[in-house]
């Protein structure tokens, strides 16, 4: 008997597999010659067949056997990818999904599809393509032992700077040898506690990855004076051996001898770099992965949050006691907590590509149903977001995408008549912006008509006919409950998500929706979401008697507050900084903090959207691990604060939501445009 | 501002060669004839780099390095030791005394320049 947890793991695994399968099939539609995709399809099917059989899906396994055979024909060069093959494959895919979900479609379907698959892959073989494909497949496993780069780890003697050495010059010299592809990382493990650290001693080690073009002799020459007084490991990174499981080959360590410069003896380390590089989906079996329930991750995140707070208290205490031994331990704990935090957050991050497959399918299906011919472009698939956020976004995005095609894009004839290219374009784009991630759906369709939206809202009794609304406010009516019509043009993916749910879902994730549209040119819906939900790097600021935190990722600089605005008492002002006019918000006035003014007040330059804004504060306390605690429901209307955090001394600092504050103070673009 | 380099060598021809090579590249060069004179000069003024020979009257190169490194003003000043192939272990002694690196005599101008550039920058 298979227990529930195992079933769940099977379900999760197959979900990922069929997602990948569908994506590859759709991609093959546009790039039929991509043998890597064919191989991936074959591999996905093979795994599905194997695990399916193990979990009692006999019919599934039997069906996939033939499906797989069809792609084996393609893989071995006896058949080619054709639109027909993709069409049949997608139907076969649907059958697989149905079978996995425990449905029992008529069994004739299996036979029909098998026959169809057989028919589309048995026809005309393309010998030339086949030969080429065959060659490619044979070449695929990298030639054994090919040099892929150099791994260099070095630690100069502690007195290096004392005797006039310049570590920066060493690094620069190495960068020159390696060129722009060189990667460098400082290893700080050897650093003593701050109290024992002498500023003229060097305790940092470095690890670099240099490209294969770097000459070993050149690299060693950089250290010619120091080889016998330093730690130096230079290792050639070789291509993976054909057998992936092969243990790394350890040769003799390099005899470090200044005279014997051309050291031939080199450690070889086989597959490590290779495994790191191939993070992608199509990397095959080298990636060992584990599935963990999201609940456990949440649990870890909570604990890490508590740990970070406890660590802050400890470090506060250590500072007061001024005991170097304690400080050393505290610094270790600090480093560990920080690492743990980053790892935990990274575990939770998932690339957008994990859900874009279903959008591709949706676009494919929508094109068929609506008869509108359009290109669906996905950009920034590698953008990563918290897993919870990504999952919750899927439905709202489906809705926006469907609207873009249904209501945004005109049909092809209308487009041509309007002087536009017949094929429309719908773009799904993800990108980072400061501490936020932006996900937008853009179409080049007919755009939103503010007048039409306004009138409909009046018709539905949502606003009065004499309401005075900005263009932006009118657009946002689209997402008010009760606006969207009941008629659904298509039944595709109709999950019953109303447009109002888009807004509420995004806002529940501490995000916002931005709508831009130009009549006749198209519309874009942008979801702005915070990168993480739990812990951020914050910059702690002193304003009067209060302390506030802003997300460090949004901070672009700190300057002295210009003399000419120091005595002002308006909540906002404008000043020329670095040859640009910048709006300054005086947090002292806005939050009415009281307390005495500092002698040397500062301005923190922060980015929100495409705007740079200055925050006038009294003092910069420093960067701070900010564990976000939600405000109580009673305070949730205070949207200029995205939460609060507990400081090391037990006090609370509010986290300023810069975007909201900018809005509240009327400094955002929409308002400016209106004023202008 | 051009970098200032102190060269300590009892051989006028070597001093001259070094000075000329470096001056052509825009470095400023101060010359001393032996370790003792070099020590006084180096303590009185901070140089961007010191180049010293070994075999000199009054004070050898290694003695100079030891004495200079005993003075806090030498902190961060790179010293390059001029050595000859036959002197075998000397360069290790010089390193132990606090030299950053060495150049083997006889040297080509290009080789000397390469080392100087590496140590103090162009």
From TrEMBL, chain A:
Modification type Phosphohistidine: residues: 46
Transmembrane stretches, start-end: none
SUPFAM superfamilies found in the cross-reference section: ATPase domain of HSP90 chaperone/DNA topoisomerase II/histidine kinase, CheW-like, Histidine-containing phosphotransfer domain, HPT domain, Homodimeric domain of signal transducing histidine kinase
Domain CheW-like: 535-667
All residue ranges annotated as the HPt domain in the record: 1-103
A Pfam family it matches: H-kinase_dim
Classification via CDD domains: CheA_reg, HATPase_CheA-like, HPT
Basic and acidic residues biased stretches: 266-277
Domain Histidine kinase: 325-533
SMART domains, per database record: CheW, H-kinase_dim, HATPase_c, HPT
A GO CC annotation given for this chain: cytoplasm
Function: Involved in the transmission of sensory signals from the chemoreceptors to the flagellar motors. CheA is autophosphorylated; it can transfer its phosphate group to either CheB or CheY.
Protein name from the UniProt record: Chemotaxis protein CheA
Organism (species): Thalassovita autumnalis
Lineage: Bacteria, Pseudomonadati, Pseudomonadota, Alphaproteobacteria, Rhodobacterales
Automatic annotation (TrEMBL), chain B:
Pfam families linked to this entry: Response_reg (PF00072)
Record keyword Phosphoprotein present: yes
Every Response regulatory domain range: 4-120
Keywords: Phosphoprotein
UniProt xrefs under SMART domains: REC
Keyword Transcription in annotation: no
Residues recorded with modification 4-aspartylphosphate: 53
Signal peptide bounds: none
Domain of life: Bacteria
Any single GO BP term: phosphorelay signal transduction system
Designated name of the protein: Chemotaxis protein CheY
Organism field: Thalassovita autumnalis
């Amino acid at each position: 008997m298979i227990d529930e947890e195992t079933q769940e793991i099977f379900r999760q695994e197959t979900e990922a597999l069929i997602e990948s399968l569908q994506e590859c099939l759709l991609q093959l539609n546009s790039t039929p010659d991509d043998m890597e995709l064919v191989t991936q399809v074959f591999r996905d099917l093979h795994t599905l067949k194997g695990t399916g059989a193990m979990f009692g899906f006999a019919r599934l396994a039997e069906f996939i056997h033939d499906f797989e055979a069809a792609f084996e024909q393609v893989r071995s060069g006896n058949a080619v990818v054709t639109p027909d093959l993709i069409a049949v494959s997608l139907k076969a895919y649907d059958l697989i999904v149905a079978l996995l979900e425990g449905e029992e479609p008529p069994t004739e379907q299996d036979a029909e599809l098998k026959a169809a698959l057989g028919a589309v892959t048995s026809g005309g073989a393309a010998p030339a393509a086949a030969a080429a494909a065959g060659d490619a497949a044979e070449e695929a496993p990298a030639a054994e032992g090919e040099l892929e780069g150099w791994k260099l780890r070095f630690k100069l003697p502690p007195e290096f700077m004392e005797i006039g050495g310049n570590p920066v010059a060493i690094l620069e010299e190495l960068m020159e040898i390696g060129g722009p592809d060189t990667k460098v990382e400082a290893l700080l493990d050897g650093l003593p506690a701050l109290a024992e650290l002498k500023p003229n001693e060097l305790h940092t080690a470095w690890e670099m990855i240099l490209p294969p073009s770097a000459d070993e002799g050149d690299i060693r020459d950089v250290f010619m004076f120091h080889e016998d007084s330093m730690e130096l490991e230079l290792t050639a990174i070789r291509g993976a051996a054909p057998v992936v499981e092969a243990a790394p080959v350890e040769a003799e360590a390099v005899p470090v001898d200044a005279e014997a410069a051309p050291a031939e003896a080199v450690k070889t380390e086989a597959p490590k770099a290779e495994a790191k590089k191939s993070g992608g989906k199509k990397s095959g079996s080298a990636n060992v992965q584990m599935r963990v329930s999201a609940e456990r991750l949440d649990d870890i995140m909570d604990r890490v949050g508590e740990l970070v707070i406890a660590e802050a208290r400890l470090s506060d205490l250590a500072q007061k006691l001024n005991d170097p031994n304690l400080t050393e331990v505290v610094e270790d704990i600090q480093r560990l907590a920080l690492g743990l935090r980053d790892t935990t957050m990274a575990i939770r991050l998932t690339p957008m590509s994990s859900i874009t497959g279903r959008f591709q399918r949706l676009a494919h299906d929508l094109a068929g149903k609506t008869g509108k011919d359009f290109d669906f472009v996905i950009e920034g698939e590698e953008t990563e977001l918290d897993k919870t956020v990504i999952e919750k976004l899927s439905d709202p995005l489906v809705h926006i995408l469907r609207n873009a095609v249904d209501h945004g894009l005109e049909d092809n004839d209308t487009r041509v008549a309007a002087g536009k290219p017949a094929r429309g374009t719908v773009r799904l784009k993800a990108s980072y912006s400061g501490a936020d991630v932006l996900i937008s759906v853009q179409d080049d369709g007919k755009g939103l008509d503010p007048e039409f939206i306004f009138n409909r809202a009046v018709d539905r009794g949502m606003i009065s006919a004499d309401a005075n609304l900005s263009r932006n406010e009118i657009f946002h009516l689209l997402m008010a409950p009760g606006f969207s019509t009941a008629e659904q043009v298509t039944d595709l993916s109709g999950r019953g998500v109303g447009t109002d749910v888009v807004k509420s879902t995004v806002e529940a994730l501490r995000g916002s929706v931005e709508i831009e549209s130009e009549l006749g040119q198209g519309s874009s819906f942008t979801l702005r979401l915070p990168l993480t939900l739990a812990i951020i790097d914050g910059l702690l600021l002193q304003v009067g008697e209060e302390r506030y935190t802003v997300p460090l990722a949004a901070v672009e600089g700190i300057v002295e507050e210009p003399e000419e605005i120091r005595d002002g008492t308006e909540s906002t002002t404008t000043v020329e900084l670095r040859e640009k006019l910048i709006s300054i918000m005086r947090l002292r006035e806005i939050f009415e903090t009281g307390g005495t003014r500092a002698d040397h007040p500062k301005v923190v330059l922060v980015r929100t959207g495409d705007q740079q804004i200055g925050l006038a504060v009294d003092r910069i306390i420093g960067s701070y691990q900010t564990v976000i605690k939600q405000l109580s429901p009673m305070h949730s209307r205070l949207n200029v604060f995205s939460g609060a955090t507990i400081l090391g001394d037990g006090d609370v600092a509010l986290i300023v939501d810069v975007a909201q504050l900018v809005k509240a103070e009327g400094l955002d673009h929409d308002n400016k445009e209106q004023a202008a | 501002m051009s970098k200032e380099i102190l060269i300590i060598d009892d051989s006028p021809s070597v001093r001259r060669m070094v000075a000329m090579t470096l001056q052509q590249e825009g470095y400023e060069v101060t010359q001393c004839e032996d370790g003792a004179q070099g020590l006084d000069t180096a303590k009185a003024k901070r140089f961007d780099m010191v180049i010293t020979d070994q075999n000199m009257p009054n004070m050898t190169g290694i003695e100079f390095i030891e004495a200079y490194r005993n003075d806090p003003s030498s902190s961060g000043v790179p010293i390059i030791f001029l050595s000859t192939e036959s002197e075998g272990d000397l360069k290790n002694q010089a390193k132990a005394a606090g030299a950053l690196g060495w150049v083997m005599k006889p040297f080509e101008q290009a080789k000397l320049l390469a080392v100087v550039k590496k140590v103090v920058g162009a």
